[in-house]
Amino acid sequence: MTRSDSDSWDLASSVGATATMVAAARALASREPDALISDPYAEGLVRAVGIDFFTKLVDGTLDVGDADDSGVARLMTTIMAVRTRFFDDFFLNASRDGVQQSVILASGLDSRAYRLPWPDGATVFELDQPQVIEAKTAAMTHLGAHPTCDRRIVAVDLRDDWPAALRSAGFDPALPTAWSTEGLLVYLPPEAQDRLFDDITAMSAPGSALATEYHPDGGASMSERAAAVSDAWGDHGFRVNLPDLFYAGERRAVADYLTEHGWRVTTAPRSEMFARYNRDFPENDLLAPMRESLAVTATLS
Ligand SMILES: C[S@@+](CC[C@H](N)C(=O)[O-])C[C@H]1O[C@@H](n2cnc3c(N)ncnc32)[C@H](O)[C@@H]1O
Prior knowledge:
The chain is α/β, with parallel strands linked by helices. The protein has 12 helices and 7 strands. Helix content is 43%, strand content 13%.
């Protein structure tokens, strides 16, 4: 299945299935000895979606190490653990700095609004496609989960006028905001990516912060890795061609784009993020380009 401008999905199809994939990785990562993250909801959320492959993964009836020969699937778990921890730390640091308003763009099955120790008075907006955000909210209720903040959901396509939808949900552009885009950019057309950062910048009061990640080659090497992951999973009956979900085309380097728009930007390659969290990045030719993905934090003064 290829992309079209107005395509939509649920958590079991197309781009939505990638949110389930990431949640499965978080469920597995949360169980590791010396775990980097603790996401007590990921497993239940994956079960609620009901994709057999991911349910078996979190049930432990399909060993992640058996899912392919090259260790790609196992590394996915570690990559997602490091990525999740990076964004967790970003929000916790912003909260400590006094930022009370947060926006999670493309929230998928992210459970931060339920599991992070938000300060009193914190508001967290979650934006994603309607079927994704509604199913996640229903599943969390079913799991008996309660937000640890004032959680507001915004059901919207991020290629559309999401700023208007965000404002309608009570977003206050006069307040400093912590923004995240995690696992999103390759699923947006290049021009929508630029528009996203334009809109974020326009709605950011001084003191706002932003965390994101991207690959410096625009995602070409991501496609290669994603094809390998798709093949491995196809062998186990889960058929989604991940590279078909990415938008091709030249992209602006996010760090440069943000700098031009007045943000003070810090980047760290994934290999450095692994070291920061005491994890080894495995030797693997196929995955070597993944070392170069950049974790970005930016602030607006
Ligand atoms: C790889 S998942 C990441 C989810 C979440 N950020 C996480 O890390 O667990 C990609 C998410 O982006 C969302 N997404 C991608 N394109 C979108 C769009 N145009 N509008 C709204 N959501 C979108 C998908 O629905 C999905 O939840």
